[in-house]
Amino acid sequence: MLHYNIVLIGMMGTGKTTVGSLLAAETGLKLVDLDQRIAMEAGRSIPDIFAAEGEAYFRDLESAALRRTLQEQGIVLATGGGAVLREENRLAMRDGGLVVALQATADEILVRVGEDPGRPLLAGGAKERITALLEERKDAYAFAHLTVDTSGKSAEQVAAEILTHYRGS
Ligand SMILES: Nc1ncnc2c1ncn2[C@@H]1O[C@H](COP(=O)(O)OP(=O)(O)OP(=O)(O)O)[C@@H](O)[C@H]1O
Ligand SMILES: O=C(O)C1=C[C@@H](O)[C@@H](O)[C@H](O)C1
Ligand SMILES: [Mg+2]
């Protein structure tokens, strides 16, 4: 098999954690959620890190955690929505596993995440922020080996689609 790890990328609310957990259950790979790992290692929540230290500090923690995590084998890695922003991260992901981008429309993302205060980058108008971030980041998500449109599909359908590719890769 060419790729052992599966790396899920995509905007907030595209289903990385949900689909990642289904993939882990189906394959026996271990689910690692990068946001959860960063928060656990820092001993505080992601909104707290953003508020106290700023986004650049969070991105440094994220890059370091990503690099370390990708040294593991046999994982499904659900990354944070902005983990693709740095080129070094994109290269590490492509080297580290089958990179799958999950896509959804801004309207669908809004329904899924609501006005969640746990997502600092959506503060001050979730719909506008989601639309702007999707536009800003569309090139950054395009490096994936596989892109799956999740609109109108259940998380189970999305996971099944990914597994077909994973098993054939
Ligand atoms: N294919 C889907 N169809 C409908 N709802 C979904 C789908 N996938 C996930 N969801 C729901 O959308 C919400 C967000 O999903 P999830 O937390 O998995 O996204 P995420 O990509 O991990 O977001 P974040 O980047 O913020 O961690 C959850 O309530 C989840 O149940
Ligand atoms: O899209 C983003 O930039 C983010 C997404 C979340 O997963 C977290 O990593 C954090 O809230 C930043
Ligand atoms: Mg998640």
Explain what you see:
The protein contains eight helices and five strands; from the N terminus they run E-H-E-H-H-H-E-H-E-H-H-E-H. It has 169 residues and is α/β, with parallel strands linked by helices. It has a five-stranded parallel β-sheet with strand order 2-3-1-4-5. It is globular and about 45 Å long. The protein starts with 5 loop residues before the first strand and ends with a helix. Residues 10, 12-18, 35, 78, 80-81, 112-113, 119, 150, 153-155, 158 line the site of adenosine-5'-triphosphate.
Give the overall shape, derived from the CA principal axes.
globular
By oligomeric state, this entry counts as: single chain
In this entry the ligands are:
adenosine-5'-triphosphate, (3R,4S,5R)-3,4,5-trihydroxycyclohex-1-ENE-1-carboxylic acid, magnesium ion
Structural class by helix and strand composition: alpha/beta
Number of helices: 8
Helix content: 40-55%
Tally of DSSP β-strands = 5
Question: What is the terminal separation in angstroms?
Answer: 6 Å
Task: List the secondary-structure elements in sequence, H or E.
Answer: EHEHHHEHEHHEH
Q: Quick check: average pLDDT? A: 93
In this structure, how is the largest beta sheet organized?
5 strands, parallel
Q: What is Rg?
A: 15 Å
What is the percentage of strand-forming residues? 5-15%
The strands making up the biggest β-sheet line up spatially as 2-3-1-4-5
Low-confidence stretches at least 5 residues in length (pLDDT < 50)?
A: none
